[in-house]
Amino acid sequence: MTLSAEETEDAGEKLGRKLYPGAIITMEGPLGSGKTTFVKGVARALGISQIITSPSFTIVSEYYGNMPLYHMDLYRIDSIEEFELIGPEEMLDGSGVSIIEWADKAEGYFRQRHINVFMSIQGSGKRSINIEGIDW
Ligand SMILES: Nc1ncnc2c1ncn2[C@@H]1O[C@H](COP(=O)(O)OP(=O)(O)OP(=O)(O)O)[C@@H](O)[C@H]1O
Ligand SMILES: [Mg+2]
Fold first, then answer.
1. What is the distance in A from the centroid of ligand 2 to the CA of 54?
2. What digits encode the pLDDT tens for the residues 48-65?
3. Which ligand is nearest to the CA of 123?
4. Of the candidates 52, 58, 30, 31, which has an alpha carbon nearest to the alpha carbon of residue 40?
């Protein structure tokens, strides 16, 4: 449970420090649950100083720190076929970290081993974060 956006960012940073080249993190959770906030912390851990914005309109944003970070947001995607049009395997099979908001929009695509982050809103300022696939 986190009690502020800052705490959620710190949780992202904690996960970010454990990431490795090729790591894939899928994120699920409703609008405003803090997915992008969490990604900001991951980016901080990877030494990325650019400001992380929501890639909703572009689907993918790329950042370069200690490792490349591919930040995807599938909110506007409705099927695996549509997701494949952006050429995700190049990013997912590469040596960077891929983090995917609204990964459930391409349900079934992420069959390979990956880290799953589930976020939910527990009240004003409160979010719960559940992480599977990595020692936490
Ligand atoms: N504990 C918390 N953790 C994260 N964000 C919080 C928390 N409490 C309040 N907030 C607020 O909730 C909002 C979370 O926004 P954010 O863009 O990170 O959500 P999101 O899950 O990426 O949404 P979207 O599905 O639209 O991409 C921010 O305005 C943030 O300030
Ligand atoms: Mg977001």
1. 5
2. 999 999 876 779 999 999
3. 1
4. 52
